[in-house]
Specification:
Elements (H helix, E strand, L loop, with lengths): L5 H22 L5 E8 L6 E8 H6 L1 H11 L3 E3 L2 E3 L1 H11 L2 E8 L2 E7 L3 E7 L4 E7 H8 L6 H10 L4 E7 L2 E7 L1
Antiparallel strand pairs: 1-2, 1-10, 3-4, 5-6, 6-7, 7-8, 8-9, 9-10
Helix pairs in contact: 4-5
Amino acid sequence: DHSEDPDMKKMTFVFSALFLMTAQFSLAAEPHFFKLELQETSQEEPTNVKLNLPLGMIQAMSPQIQDAIDKGLDEVHVQDQTFNLREVWAEIQAVGAHEYARINGPDGVVVVSTTETHLIVEMNDDEQELRAEIPLSVGDILLGSENPDFEAIVEQLIELEEEYLIVVTGTHINMKAWIE
């Protein structure tokens, strides 16, 4: 009878522990990463940036990020004006696809609009063109709650896995960010 053999008990324990650890790792979700790629070509030497940050690393900074979220979204200052970004977002959602601003000036054209799926900002002048696209779903996650919780924001962004969080294209810049 091997049930009393101490070596057999140790081996059974070790194999049981290994089995449980293997099962746990196979059931555990793969880690998610925040990815950003940026190519900037306005200088003689182009700049290429690639970030591949584990979300756990970003989540480790959650107290600082939560503080910035709490302070930064309700009152945004542009020149001498202050406005509530959440209120602006609520109005954008209520109106739907629309061209909100078109500024034709001596320095070029700026257009701010929405489609059914994206907020789009376009800037064109004699030297460069720039277009930024942000999915409305990202805006909803970041601005849709009066009391945003950083952890909840991260979980919701993970659900958008592989969808670009922002895409910026232009004469001298290309950037995209997503969660994988």
